[in-house]
Every structure is written in structure tokens, then in C-alpha cells.
Amino acid sequence: MSKPIELRPDETFVVNVGPQHPATHGVLRVKMRMDGEYIVEAETVIGYIHRMHEKMGELKTYPQFLMNLSRMDYLGAMGYCHGHVLCVEKAAGIEVPERAEYIRVIMVELNRIASHLFWFGAFVMDLGGFSPLMYALQDREYILDMMESVTGSRLTYCYFRFGGLYNDIDDEFIAAARRFIPRMRKSMAKYEKLVTGNVIFRKRLEGNAFLSKEVCRKYGASSAVARGSGINFDVRKNEPYSVYPEFNFDIPVFHECDSLARYNVRMAEIEQSLRIVEQALDKLPDGPIMPAKAPKIIKPNAGDYYQAVETARGSFGVRLVSDGGKTPYRLKLRSPTYSNMHLFDETCTGMMIMDALAFMGSLDLVIPEIDR
Amino acid sequence: MSLTLLNVIFAVVVAIAFAALNAAYLVWAERRGAGRIQRRPGPNINGPFGLFQPPLDGLKLMAKQLTIPGGADKILFVAAPVLSMFPAIMSFVTIPFSEMIVAHNMNVGLLMIFAFASSGSMALLFAGWSSRNKYAMMSAVRSVSQAVAYEIPMLITAITIVLMTGTMDLMEIVRQQGPSILHWNIFPLLTNSHNLLMPFSFLIFFTCTLAETNRAPFDLGEAESELVAGFHIEYGSMGFGLFFMAEYANIVIGSCLTTILFLGGWHPPLPFLGFIPGVVWFLLKIYILIATFIWIRWTFPRTTIYGLLNLSWKILIPISLFNLLLTAGLLKVF
Amino acid sequence: MIAETTKKALQALFPEPAAAVEEIPASPETEEADKAPKKEAGPRPNGVIERDYAVHGYHLDAQVAVDQLIDAVNIVDQNEFFIETITGVDWIKEGEFEVIYDFSRYDFEVCRVVIRTRVPRDNPQVPTITGIYAGANWHERETHDFFGIKFEGHPHLIPLLLPEDADFHPLRKDFKP
């Protein structure tokens, strides 16, 4: 009487992870076809907060567009502003005083630390540990307070100008930054003990979501996603821009290709950013923060320009096609997470949902930046 | 006859009151504890130290509308929260808080608690199944496989105790653990088995309690960041409230059981401290255990479902089986 | 070094007009650009130009015909470049769309390659490169969203960033919101 159980190939169901889901950190949606807890296939649906920054870039003049950049990646806004001003300065041939560049680097690196800290907290929260987020936010708060005193805003900075900066840093800021560095190092040791050494944490991440070099290359992954796969790629070193060649810092590279490697890269990057800030504060030259004859109206030369910078989330590129007018003819913003997120569909196939969401956390997603 | 009936009703009412009060104030304790761990105040507005927060929360939950999702299995959906609360309360009836304070002692008290404990996972299955939600369904399946996996080492460990004490009567188990800390089953140097591995048994039992009560790091049924809220994703109002209370009631039951089986119940750690009533020692022990629960929850990240099952089937069950055999052998020797 | 080999490989795609391309040297052209908008006397011929990295931010600038695109991307792929991005530019006066592919390298031999191709505005069709670079999928979908450029052979060419029923292409210069 016993008949073998028929395995029907269509015994799968679709789970909509998002647009509102705690693990997606925003309005990202992943349609997952599941076989029990296993993902058979996944399709990422993005664009829920698409704001067409590129069209705004064409409609607004160059200075008007400055504040849009920080609305893209609200956690690591400085890096994006840096890429944009560098590209326009290159196109318009504007010289930047050295002091301004140093301050830019300090700001970008502090912002990178803040961004990594937030990622760290959110990532551990994805894995079910709540407390590290609070600790990380406390350290991040210190940076935000510091940056607020100079830039006037806490999250969406509009601090860089074409040719320089909006505001010079004062002694108070420098003193606060110097106090911050040892404090952050102490915190890092604490995180190391609390999270990195935790056996559950390691067990979950070791071997999770193997990303080969080839996959990274085909998708154009950057930041810790590439560096966790053994690719020694950091725009700050590969294509030095601004005053980065002046500093002595390392690019942490891990070869395990798993989520733990990506985690380790970011945690090691915080230390490297601290080193850069330390050196920049030591070397900070005196001088103006805006060039003497900064042009009132920015009119870059006609042509096609590209500038890549390393932001907290990876290689951010600005392609500026100018026709010599007051507004760009075309402004393309290459956002790093867009490429990093694209990996997800292919990689998460066959994984369990909890591993896939841990992997998603390790990509360090900021949705407004994917959607632009 | 009528006296016994009254007795039982009284016992159940007291049990419900104790469970509800504990659940409410454990939520407060949990939030304050989390606040302390995370360097923030926690609830501190309503009343001194935020002590009015739990009743106000309860009031809010009761005032909310109970929504039943379209297409849900109504009867099961409504029954599930009640079912989850019921075993937790019933288990209180047989727990001896001291030599005197026990609602109804029976000679198979341990068996009764385990019987009720296993019916708890049925409530989760009903909740997950009836809500017509995929997340809830996945969570229900997880919870059941988790409950099955962790009941085995828990029971084996309990059997070890039963072997040592020769009884399933909770009162009797406690009585045998007097008078000092060296007679407790966790350090059984002076009891009849002299099994030095009992601390491991205690750890296994404690881990299983964590898993059975769906607490972090084994809260895979809830798993906010994966399954949103798990089996109670569709529950609002007091349906959610009951699940919440059941979770904390289960924690109390788990701590009580651990205390009774391993930590000497109402016995003071040293004989000369006997002037303090037993119930104080008992409550002190269970609240220390509960504080450990809270501490663990806010410190550890969540495990994975396969990590959880591996831990149970590949580590806990073999160790507890070994310990059972060892205890049996030692009992024969001494 | 890698720039040289890639340039040679790409130049092999243009047997005849290679000489014509050589006539436009890289540096004078860019310096002239400081003065006046560059006049190249009509559309730029297909070919590879080496650009000044300090000025433009990339090293090789290859304009290819639509049917040469796959070959060019293959060359880039064989030289182990990674895909940066794909985008379009609407040259409405010339009645053409330009599709721009950016490639770069992971190692320290910095070389950014730009491959561009032009298609008529009224029938914009470009072969997909998703077969070569899987990561081109989203970039092509985005370009399709914004410009309405059809990528033939693309497995899933539906709106990505725009709403799923969007029938407009906002980055076209004649787009009126």
C-alpha cells in the first residue's frame, strides 16, 4: 500500500523580505523563493526611494547640487561630497589650498569611522545582539558632535565647497579629535572582546557567503566586500587623490572571502582611519581654506571627466559630462552599494534565510544610496 | 471535598496572579536591565523607577483591538495565546516555594511540569499555523524542531536527578539537598552519587531552559531581524500580551525548576543561615537565574537554526547521556 | 603597462581608421579644451584615444561601433578589468544616445578604460553585455529606465529604479515631467 512520496518541484513559496523588514535597513525588497528555510532564488527589487539625483544634477547648477550628495549616503556623506567636489574642481581647474584638503581628509575619515561604527552596531543587531549598537552609537555620537561644531549639521553635511571649505576648524575641534583617537582605540578593544571573540558570532559568520574574486570582479564590488575576498583594492591607494599619498596607512585585506572577513576588514579600517586622522592633525598646515580667487560661477570646460573616491561603502564615482555651461550636461553617480548589492541575488541562492540576511548585513547597505 | 476544590481554585488564582505579576515586572526588569547594559535609562517616567510602566502597558494592550487576519484559522488563532499561557500557569501549581508554600504537591510533580512544558510548543505551532503568514509558519516550524531537540537533553538531565534522588516528587528532591551547598545537586560531593560531572549537567539543563523558553541566544522562533516577530507576528492587543506573559512565565518556571533540581530549592547555602525563611532563598535563587537570562539575552547574538540543532543533537544529548550512565554506575558503586 | 596591452588589443578592432585616430593626439586636444569647446569637426571617429589621467580621470577612451561592443568588452574582460558602471548620455542635437561603459582594475596598475558607443535616438538598441559581466544587469536596466535604450538579449529588462509601470525616460533631454 505504501507509495513513495512524490516530491513536487513546485513546493516552494515566495517570501517578500521587505520593503519593510528589520533586516533590510530601509526600503529594500527581496523576493525570495523558498524551499523551507532554503532560498531557491532571490530577486532584489530596489527603487523604493529613488529620487533621480542625476536629473537634479542636470537641472541645478554645480553649487546648488552640493547638498544632494549627502542625501545619497546619509551615513558616510562626506565621502560622496568629496568625490563630487574633486570631480568638478578637476573639470573646472580650481586649485584647492593644502589646508582645505587636509581638513577634507580629516572629515572624510572621521565620517568613515562614524559610518563603520553604525554599520557595526546594525550588523550585530541583524545577528540578534542588541547592545553593541548602543555602544557604537555612543562613540559615533562623539564624532557627530565634533563634526556638528564645524559643519553645522550632524548627518547630511554640506561642508565642502568648490575650491575649499565652508568653515575652518578651530582648536577646539582639533583638541576633541585628539581626545577621540585614544578613546576610540579603547572602544575597539572592547568591541573585539565583546563581539569579535564571541563564539556564536564567529560560528555564524565563518564560511558564510563565499564570494570569490571572480564574482567580485564581474559585479564590480568594492570596499570591504572586495577586500574581504582578498582583493587589495582601495581607491585611496590605487589611484591616490587629494592628499592621501602624504599619509602612512595600510589597506586591510582578508582572504577568507566570508562574512567574517568583511567584518574584519571594516573593523581594521577604523584603526587605519584613526591613523590617517592622527597624521593629518599632526601635519595640518596653516593657510586659507578657500582659494584667493575662487570663481563665483562654476563653469567647467567641456569634456568628459571621471573621479573615483573611496567612501565608507566603496568606490564612488562621479562622471561629469560638461558642455561648458552652468549646469552639467550629464552627471552620473556611480554608487558602490549598487554593485555590492547586485551580488546578493546570485550569492544567496541555496543559503538559509538567516545566513542570507547575515550576508546582507555584511554588505553594509544604505538604501538611499542604492536607489539614488 | 469542597475544601479541596476551594484549595485548588485558590491555588490557581494565586498561580495566575503570581505568573501575571512576575511576567509584568520581569518585562520591567528586562527593560531596566537592558538599559543598564546598554548605558541608557530604560523606562523611568511612569512612577518611581518606571514601576508603573508594566500595568500601563497592560492597560494599553487590553484597550487595543484584537485583529484577526483575513483567511486565518479563527479558532486556533484565538486559542493559541491562551494555550501558551495555560501550561505555564498550571506548572506553578506543583512548584514548592518552601517547605510550607506549595499549592498542591504530587509525587510525580516533575513529570507534570514536563508534560505541560511540551504542550507549550503546541501553542506556538497553532499560532504560526493559524496566522496565515509565511514568517509565522517558518517560525512555528523552527520552534517545534527546537522544542523537540531540547526536550531530550533536558529530560535526560532530569532523569539523572531522579536517579540520584529516587523520586519525582519535587518536595522530596529538595529535601534531599539539605542542609548545605555541598549537598545541592550541582555540587553533589556529599550526596549519594558523588558525581563530579553534575555542574555540566546543570549547564546543560540551563541551556535547555534557555532554548525551551525561546530566549536569546536561542530565540529563533522570534528572530526579529529574520522572521520579523515570528509566530506572534499577526498578534496585537492582548493576544500578543498573553504570548509575552507566557514567555516570562515560562522563564520563571524554568528558573524554579533549575533551582529545585540543582540549586537546593529553599535550602540556604550554609546551615547557620537557616533563620531566613526558605521562600526568601528560593526567590533569591530564581531571580538570580532570571537576571542571568536577561544578561545573556542582551549580550549574545542569535544562533542559527542548524547551529542550535547541532548543539543539541551532537553535543548536549551525548554528554547528558554519558552523564546519565555515569551517575547510574556511580550509584551502583557507592 | 596594462594600459599599453589593452590599448593594442582594442586598437586591433579598428583596422582602417587607426591611422586617422592617431592624428588626434591626446595632450594638445585636452589643452585646447581649456580655451574653447572642442571642435572635432563632426562626430568623433571610432577608435582608441589615450587620455590624460590627471585631467579626465581615465586612461583609455575607446569609441566603438555598436557591433564591435561585445568584442571590445571581451577584450577588457580578458584583461581582468572589473565593471565600474554603465550609463548613457543623450546627445539630442546629434540625434544620438551615447552609452558609456566604465572599467577599472583591482590591482595597482591603475588603468581606467571607457568604452563608448553611439546609437540613433529613434531606435536605440545595444547588445547586452550581461553574458560577459553579470554585474552589468542592473546597470543596463538602469540605463534602460533613464534613457529607454534597449539592451538586446538582456534577461530581465524591466524597470529597476523607476516604478514598474513607468513608460517615461527621465534623463532624455526632451523629457518633460
TrEMBL record, chain A:
Q: What GO cellular component term, any one, is given?
A: plasma membrane
Q: Which family does it belong to?
A: Belongs to the complex I 49 kDa subunit family.
Q: Which residues form the NADH-quinone oxidoreductase subunit D domain?
A: 126-299
Q: What is its EC number?
A: 7.1.1.-
Q: Which UniProt keywords apply?
A: Cell membrane, Membrane, NAD, Quinone, Translocase, Transport, Ubiquinone
Provide the assembly information. NDH-1 is composed of 14 different subunits. Subunits NuoB, C, D, E, F, and G constitute the peripheral sector of the complex.
Main location as per UniProt: membrane
Molecular function via GO: NAD binding; NADH dehydrogenase (quinone) (non-electrogenic) activity; quinone binding
Q: Does the keyword Translocase apply?
A: yes
Q: Which reaction does it catalyse?
A: a quinone + NADH + 5 H(+)(in) = a quinol + NAD(+) + 4 H(+)(out)
Subcellular location(s) per record: Cell membrane
Full protein name: NADH-quinone oxidoreductase subunit D
| Domain of life assignment | Bacteria
Instruction: Quote the Pfam families the UniProt record gives.
Output: Complex1_49kDa
Q: Which EC class heads this enzyme's classification?
A: translocase
Native source organism of the sequence = Desulfopila aestuarii DSM 18488
Gene name?
Answer: nuoD
The cross-references to PANTHER family, in alphabetical order and at most eight, read:
NADH DEHYDROGENASE [UBIQUINONE] IRON-SULFUR PROTEIN 2, MITOCHONDRIAL, NADH-UBIQUINONE OXIDOREDUCTASE 49 KDA SUBUNIT
Membrane topology according to the record:
Peripheral membrane protein
Please tell me whether the keyword Transport is annotated for this protein. Answer: yes
Q: What functional role does this protein have?
A: NDH-1 shuttles electrons from NADH, via FMN and iron-sulfur (Fe-S) centers, to quinones in the respiratory chain. The immediate electron acceptor for the enzyme in this species is believed to be ubiquinone. Couples the redox reaction to proton translocation (for every two electrons transferred, four hydrogen ions are translocated across the cytoplasmic membrane), and thus conserves the redox energy in a proton gradient.
From TrEMBL, chain B:
Which parts pass through the membrane?
6-29, 75-97, 109-127, 148-166, 186-206, 248-266, 272-296, 308-331
Quick check: keyword NADP in the entry? no
- What is this entry's stated membrane topology? Multi-pass membrane protein
Instruction: List the GO terms this entry assigns under cellular component, sorted alphabetically.
Output: plasma membrane
Kindly state which reaction or reactions the protein catalyses.
Answer: a quinone + NADH + 5 H(+)(in) = a quinol + NAD(+) + 4 H(+)(out)
Localization terms from the record: Cell membrane; Membrane
GO biological process terms, semicolon-separated: aerobic respiration
Q: Which domain of life is it from?
A: Bacteria
Question: Which GO molecular function, any one, fits this protein according to its record?
Answer: oxidoreductase activity, acting on NAD(P)H, quinone or similar compound as acceptor
Its family remark reads: Belongs to the complex I subunit 1 family.
Quaternary structure (record): NDH-1 is composed of 14 different subunits. Subunits NuoA, H, J, K, L, M, N constitute the membrane sector of the complex.
State the name under which the record lists this protein: NADH-quinone oxidoreductase subunit H
Gene source species:
Desulfopila aestuarii DSM 18488
UniProtKB/TrEMBL annotation, chain C:
SUPFAM superfamilies referenced in this protein's UniProt entry, alphabetically: Nqo5-like (SSF143243)
Region Disordered: start-end pairs: 19-46
Q: Which Gene3D superfamilies would you find in this protein's record?
A: NADH:ubiquinone oxidoreductase, 30kDa subunit (3.30.460.80)
Q: Name one GO molecular function term.
A: NADH dehydrogenase (ubiquinone) activity
| Low complexity bias spans | 19-28
Q: Which domain of life is it from?
A: Bacteria
Domain named NADH:ubiquinone oxidoreductase 30kDa subunit is located at 63-176
**Mind telling me which InterPro entries this protein's record contains?**
NADH_quin_OxRdtase_su_C/D-like (IPR037232), NADH_UbQ_OxRdtase_30kDa_su (IPR001268)
The biased composition feature labelled Basic and acidic residues covers 33-42
| Family affiliation | Belongs to the complex I 30 kDa subunit family.
What is the protein name for this chain? NADH-quinone oxidoreductase subunit C
According to its UniProt entry, this protein's organism is Desulfopila aestuarii DSM 18488
